[in-house]
Structure formats: structure tokens, C-alpha cells
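Could you help me review a protein record that somebody else here produced? Here is the record exactly as it was handed to me:
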Amino acid sequence: MKKIAILLILITASVPYVFAGFPVGKGRFMLVPSYNLYTAKGYWDQSRIYKPFDNNGRFVSHYFSLYGGYGISRNLNLMFNIPVTSQTFSQTGKVGTNFGLGDLTVGLSTFLTDFDKENHVSLTGSLILPMYQNPTSADLPFLGFQSPGLELKMGIAGSTTKYFRNPYYDIEGGVRTYLNQGGPTQLFINITGGVPIADDWKISGTFSGVSSSSSNVTNVSTGQLFANGDFDYLRLTGNVGHIINDKVSVWFGIFTDISGRNTGRGSGLSLSAVLKL
């Protein structure tokens, strides 16, 4: 099961959701159940050169999550994400699968100021809690770094009525650090822009990236099977959403990795719903 370590970043924020950029509203709930499918047949090495997995290797991740928020006050939200992941790495004559809860994330998002009623600046602090034990078997993928962590991010989100069909945007960036020895520490950014194409249909695109560093550096050519914390990648995502009513919308997306180092190169699809209660 060589080179699995480079895929273990797919703990998997397969498609980053940035719905937290807008206030939920005092006393209201927002829930986002989602499913993401990710597949990869190769990886980028330390020199950013693409290589296929040995022996017809293939990595598949099924990622289910329940993301949500509750409006404590007009400018303060409680946010959470509960993930469940099934990961399989197969080669000729050998298959390894791991299934379980991932990293639970719980945090508070405060809205610092309003440029106007439709644009918001937010600051979110979160606690990361691993809900699993990584396997000791070398034939099974890891579900994560198995470490508590902290995350701090700032975002700006809004819309405008000055242009065609009221386009909207959601931009966030921040830092995430895991507290076990060696980290890792990760910088990340998500940039989303979208526009309604009809009264009940929207399209959006997201550019996202992660840069992770750790003192526990894995040379992927050795086939060491602990979670590799030294990597980076860039990803593009396209989404189309159908607005059923003012409380329910459904979204379908496709995404692909466009650049990376010490990580898998793959693509996938996503299906989610946004519920406002």
C-alpha cells in the first residue's frame, strides 16, 4: 500500500463549504447535509511531478457531512461540522478500506461590521476534535491526523444589486494547526463567486488552496504510512443550485485538483442541500 500517506490530507474537505460567510439570524438554524465523491489514480511528488499509483492503484473517498449553524444573536453564530468518511485504496490483488467519523469541528463566528445590509465581515474560531483512532495496519488508509487542533479564519461575503442578476461572493482565509508534536500547520483560502441565472437557479465557482507544513516530513517515495503533513494543493469547483423555496435549496458540484505537491491528483462530485429553519 505504498504512497498512501500522500492522500491522507483527504480527511477530506473534499469540497469546502463557505456558507458560514453570512449571518444565520438570531434563533435560527442552518443545516447543510452533503455527500462528496473523490477519486484519484495518481499523485504529485515532492517535485510536483505527476506519477500514477503502482499496480493500477486507485484511491476512492466517500465523504458525508452535516455542516450547520445556529444564530445565538444577530452577529454571533455557533458553527459545527460532523463528517463521516469511507476511504479505499486498491491495487492489483489488494484492497484496504477504512470507515468512520472524521474530525468534528465546533466554533463561534462573529460578524465584525457591515459595509451595508448585504455585505459582511466575519471572524471564526473553531476547535478540531478527532473522533477516531487511526488503524495500526499498513493496509488501511488513515482518517486524519488523529490530533486536536485549532482554526482561525476571516471572511468577507455579500452581494450587490448594481450588476447583472445580483452576483454574490464569499471569500475566506485562515490558519489551522494541529496540536500533536509536529503539527501540521496549514494555511488555506477559499474564493467563491456566483450569480443567479434565473429566479430559482444559481451557478457558482470556487478556487481553493491549502499549504501544509510539518516537522514530521514524509518522503512519499518511502511508502511510510503515517499521515503526511507536508503538502500543498489547488482545486477548482463548479456548482449549480436550485432554489426550491426561501428555506430549501439543493446544489450539485464537480471539482478537480489542478496543482499539488506530496498529494493525490483527483477529481470528484458533490451533492448538498441548504436548509434554513
The chain is about 0% helix and 65% strand. The chain has one domain: 4-276. The CA atoms of residues 113 and 121 lie 6 Å apart. Confidence is low (pLDDT under 50) at residues 1-6, 13-18, 219-226.
